Amino acid sequence: MSKVERLDKYIAAVVQAAPVFLDIDRTVDKSIDLIIEAGKTGAKLIAFPETWIPTYPVWIFGAAGWGDPSAHRAYARLYENSLYIGSPHLDKLCAAAREAKTFVVIGANEKLSEDPGSLYNSLFYISDEGKFLGVHRKVMPTYTERNVWDYGDGSTMPVFDGPAGRVGGLICWEHWMPMARMAMHCKNEQVHIASWPDISEAHHLASRHYAFEGKCYVICVGFYMTTDHISKNFELYDTIADMGELGGEANEIFPGGSGIIGPDGEWIVGPVSGKEEIIYGEIDLRKTVEEKLLLDVTGHYNRPDIFNLVIDDRPKPAVRWMSEGDKYRAIGPDDVSMTSKNETSD
Hints:
Helix content: 10-25%
Radius of gyration: 20 Å
Mean pLDDT: 89
Number of helices: 7
CATH superfamily: Carbon-nitrogen hydrolase
CATH class: Alpha Beta
Strand content: 15-25%
Largest sheet: 7 strands, mixed
Order of helices and strands: EHEHHEEEEEHEHEEHEEEH
Shape: globular
Structural class: alpha/beta
Number of strands: 13
């Protein structure tokens, strides 16, 4: 296996912005513009918020409840505008990463195909050569998120090694799952994407703790979105508008708070709130080594003789087909377009 050539120092970009609400075509176009802009600035890694494509379904925390026809229609729109592996939209994002020569991590609502099925809250990883590398699917949707997203499994918790270093990520409240953190730390991340919709003080705390504990850089990224970004024709606009009124004069739904945290737990840049902005900061991979002098939770500051974590990273498809015989041609897993949860690209 050839040795990965890493950059000692480089610029990372944090995209704090609003997607084009529930419109995958225009959100992907906006994503491409932002990737190209950041690439021209010299960024070698770009991170987008949780479920950037085509939005975070914030209405699930409002008044829309069980059996509400508007909630059903909203889910259908979300599904129709979600990203899937092998789609033309993903091809366009890969082409943009290749043109910008930058590693891209982008949050998306993910469906497994064009056919009806469950959605996942996912991070898509794209190399600086424009190659789709794989996904992380959120293993524990939070509270009413379970009305929208299925569970990911242990097969989609990757860390990718390349010019930007060893890059991985977790989504939102996964940062409060101690064993999930340990599983990622064991893969020796150097740069971690902490992907959020909103970034409260508690989310800053979790992101800074992750950086200090893992001795890695943390790109803390979330939306800036107001009620002005929501179409008034949306079925649940009033539900979201009522939530936005809590955000002050700007009717902020997600006020931002993105930035980059060093492996000592201190902010390198940010946090930035109250506006759409690409936030830039320097990553110095040597510091991820220097900081492990005092703390290495998977090395000299671990007691494996006392504590033992077992990680099951086998795929867990919803159905396992156990067919036998070929006398008659039967419909099996290869005949349906929905693939198993663990599908990744070569």
